[in-house]
């Protein structure tokens, strides 16, 4: 009997000396966000392995009351996302913003209890690091000069566009009007595009920034987003990059001595022309969305 007790004691000691992981630790979710429990990180970002051996992918996951979204590669997302027609904002830790108001890039947004953005959002889905359109501005944020520019632009558009025209046709009409009614003379008085648009739409002359600003105002009132493009070699030439029918195109209304009609050109067209004419359209492609 004593021998049996001795054998049992040895077995118990060996059992508790073995490596042991609590079930709760192995199968628990994170307590607050990336960096704890089952969250993993590599050179791309944060991801979450699942008990079945896979990982969270293209789905929402709730962790200790916070919602996180993972992309199609399985990485946690941040910033704006679109899901089933609704817009959500994920903060720097990846947690979904909900039941609050938040200022993002200078604009106030309201979010519901389930995280949906209740404020109208202009969606462009541009890659991180590229420039954003600068001509789609909420009415409450416009200056008095900007509102006067809108009135001038609306009057011009009423004469050169109509509701039956496609987005491309409207863009082409705006290009033709600026080219046909402006002359390259003098200098722009400001680098604030609404102020320069106000001056140039009344005087009908100016430099490349004047042409760019006038086009920006007309494009804005036609509902066509536009991004400011600046020549990278000397920062001394400006033109528009416009989104038409879901794609981005170059839109330079400024005339050149060698001629040319640079309306809705692709990156390839701009680069080919630039290479033949001393880099006149050289731009940093990493700053702008790609064209077709």
UniProtKB/TrEMBL annotation:
Q: According to the UniProt entry, where is the signal peptide?
A: 1-24
Which intervals hold domain Transglutaminase-like? 200-255
Origin superkingdom: Bacteria
- PROSITE patterns (UniProt xref): CW (PS51170)
UniProt cross-references to Gene3D superfamilies, sorted A to Z: 3.10.620.30, Cholin Binding
Q: Which InterPro entries match?
A: Cell_wall/Cho-bd_repeat, Papain-like_cys_pep_sf, Transglutaminase-like
- Where are the annotated Cell wall-binding repeats, by residue? 57-76, 77-96
Q: Which UniProt keywords apply?
A: Repeat, Signal
This one is known as Transglutaminase-like domain-containing protein
- Give the organism the record lists: Oribacterium parvum ACB1
